[in-house]
Amino acid sequence: MTPAVPDALVPPALRLIRANRTFVTADGARGVPLTLHEAAGRVHVLPLLPTRGGLAAQRAAVAALRPHNEG
Question: Within its chain, how far is the Cα of 1 from the centroid?
Fold first, then answer.
């Protein structure tokens, strides 16, 4: 299946997430598993439910990636 958004248009951090489907925090700790929602030429990062760290970990992952989601 061809992605909705070509790799060339996806920011490097999201390309890594697209490949690994996992968010790694800035200090190198493994974060919550993520998925990408690709539609209308934009890529949005969404945590998979349920997350190991619960709702707090889910919110932290989304907050950390917000600049990518809004770009």
Answer: 19
Q: Which residue has the tokens 């949005």?
A: 44
Amino acid at 46: L
E strand residue ranges, 1-71: 22-24, 30-39, 42-47
In this structure, what DSSP letter does residue 49 have? Answer: S
- Span 54-65, pLDDT tens digits: 666 667 766 776
Residue 21 CB contacts under 8 Å (≥ 6 apart), including other chains? 33, 34, 35
| Angstrom distance (rounded) from CA 37 to CA 3 | 10
Q: What is the pLDDT of residues 22-55, one digit of tens each?
A: 555 555 555 555 666 665 566 666 655 555 566 6
